[in-house]
Amino acid sequence: MGKLRMFIAFGLAMVSAGAIVWCTVAARPVPQVARAAEPAVPDPWELLGPNDEPRVDHDRQATTEVKVAGAGPGDLRAVPEGRLDERQRQVKVTIVHRLRMNEVDKLVEVLRQGSSFPDGIRRFTDEGFGAIKVDGTVLAPTTRPAPTLTTKAGVTTAEFQVTLLRQFAPGALMTLDFNAPSAKPLLVQQRTVSLLPGAWTVLQSESIKPDLEEPDHLQFRVGSYLVRVTLAQDSYGFPDAMEENDFSWTAGLGVLTAIALVAFLARSLGMAWWNRLHNRELVLGLVLIAPLVFLPLLAPSWRPLAYVALFLAVPALTARHASRALPTSPPWTTRDMLVVTGLGCLVGIGMLSWSWLHQQLPGQTLLIGAVVAAVAAAAAAVVFSVDLGVRVVIVRLAVLAAEAAIGLLALALWGRALLTGVYPPDSIRLVLALGWAMIPIAAIAVATKTWTRTAVVGALLVSLLVQRWPTEWLDAGSWDMPSTSSSNLPMIGILPLDPLVRGVLGLLLLAFALLVLRLRRLGGSLAALDHPATHATVIVCLMVLYLTPRGSTTFTAVNVALPQLSITSIAAWVTARWLLVRPHPAVVEPTSAEEHRQLVRAALHKRLLLISEQELYRIGRGKLGAGELSMAEFDTQRLELEAALHEHGRHPETALATAAGCTPWHNGVHAFVISLLLSTPFVLVFGWPSGADLSSFVFDSRYLLTLPAFGFLFGYFYPRIRGTQPMTKALHLMAAALVTELSAYLPTLFEPDVGVADKVQVTAIVVGEVALVCIGLGLYWEWRIMHLAGEPWARVRNIRSVRSLATPLLAVVIAAGTTAATSAAGQTVDRILKGDQVSSSDSP
């Protein structure tokens, strides 16, 4: 290339870059125009015209009376069964708001019409008089009777009543928060509050000066500010010293579970994995980045650093790890680059249209800048590549440069809008999803030992789903303005589902998927059954599926809420280790289908000889006594049977305890599918999973996979499960799964406020589901082994025998009892099964 052409090429490239810079500098801040919303219902007290000044009618008088009393049987009739605790104190708080005004007041006519009632009763009382919050366990929803109007001597009184039911532990304090009214304009400047504490005593009061202060009556005036009153129970005295129990079973189990998970995870990778330098570097990098990701829990102002760590640092680290772990570079071609830049160009055009619609740049300016940038970039590419002499290559490079220029312009304008605080929120999620997609792309490449286009496309789709459902991306309104607060975000536990939380949940799901892929890779041969890494990987998967957070707790010196880990995770670990008994019984594994067939036929022949020997001894007693059979004939038949048995060996037959010539992964998948089908009907009891996005939906549906995961363990390690026959192995599996499943309900089942009938119903549901899945899986496995051997199932389970029907009949009876228990189960059983937690506070 000559100097002149080089000068021209670089000059055209500078023109393209200058057009992009010029458009970015000329861009104006996007005006913060609120998106169109549905017309709001006018406030019932909004009586001012558009040109009137806000004012308060001084003839109005507002009073609030709060009465605290014990809740009687009639008051507690609406409380769901199982929520009451006889050891605690049930309280009824009655709040009466009264508003007195002249009969000619315009508000009187508005209240008489009641256009926004009954739905607006709560809004009127909370915003007009100020919401009153009472802590304690909520026994029933707040109730509000219809407001009453009374007119006498030219004065109209409007009365609003609110009733709350709360439950307090012995010695617990009751806090009443009198919030400031939020109505505009105010109904009154000040309101008078009368508190009748009943069997409680005023312990603390803030921001008040009492007009009347007596043991059973406190009266004060309050304006537009918060007032807090704390009550103490009269029947409880505060001891001078409290004995504190420093040990917490919840925290102890949580720490034990975390240590076990980390230990098994490290063991599941194997020493060969840890011996590689780039693997150790990956772990070290993730350990250093993890504190930055979780830093917002301690310092919310550092949230941007967490986003940089999760969506930039982690993808860069995984990409570097993949480049070092794989022997070859990605085989991307020019066509792949054209497709990628073409998709980026389409997204860029969409973003440029957003910039034009929201007046970031005038349409003419935007069009000229985009055309100049694209044409100059394409011309520069042509000048740079003209020496190649291949027309197809030159055209492709020109198109690639033009698409890249459009994308860079859109990215620059998007960054300018981001700096001014007004941008399409879905564009942020799109950029974050594209950055996060590098993590699964690199992970799949390392797991499969190659780079594939299918994995890239799948990872991109999964990344978009992790950040939200696709339907939200099609909402045109979501490309208008950013969300001003996170209060409207869906929650998972105590965390709002913002992009950071979604990314962390996506990483957890990806790690679980990689563990399953590792099981598939290890399960390609029977040698995996005795591999320590395989055992550890299966236990980690089981523990993760049974890791059910219930509530939250805090460490002593750190004010950070942490999930309380359920004991079921530890129970899954213990029972899985018990199932994989050591030392393992000696089993001759067939290496082919024909060998499996011969082993099963030999086992059937041996079983026939054993039955014949038992039958000879059974009928021999009668025939010998009756003289129908001589001793010599008896000894001849006995010796013939013993010789035949000696030829086949007297060791226990284990043909039905082998892998049937299949790989562990193949057996595990079959058992998982059958267990999933058998447990699907119980979705009617536990409910369908729900979630705001892919991550929360998958986390909510884990309970559907717990028993199938035990089924996978049964199939994967079938030769190593306790027992020598399919049904004995299934019964051992049932015992392990039953202990694990019931461990989640043990604390609730021991509560005294739950009736015996409810406990029996819950136990019947859990036992019925576990028995149906495990026994059904055992029967299927027995049929499958015989089917693979080409033998009829009737040779090991005779349908005409009542004894052989005992096991399936037991499953049918338990399933029928479960169905009856499910139909009879009320709200208590539903709350126990689903683990509902009652909120500790509610706003009336």
UniProtKB/TrEMBL annotation:
Q: Which portions of this protein are annotated as coiled-coil regions?
A: none
Its transmembrane ranges are: 247-270, 282-299, 305-326, 338-357, 363-386, 393-415, 427-447, 454-471, 491-517, 669-689, 701-718, 730-750, 762-781, 802-825
What domain of life is recorded for the organism?
Bacteria
Tell me if Nucleus is a UniProt keyword of this record.
no
Keywords per UniProt = Membrane, Transmembrane, Transmembrane helix
Query: Does the record carry Transmembrane helix as a key word?
Result: yes
Identify this protein by name.
Uncharacterized protein
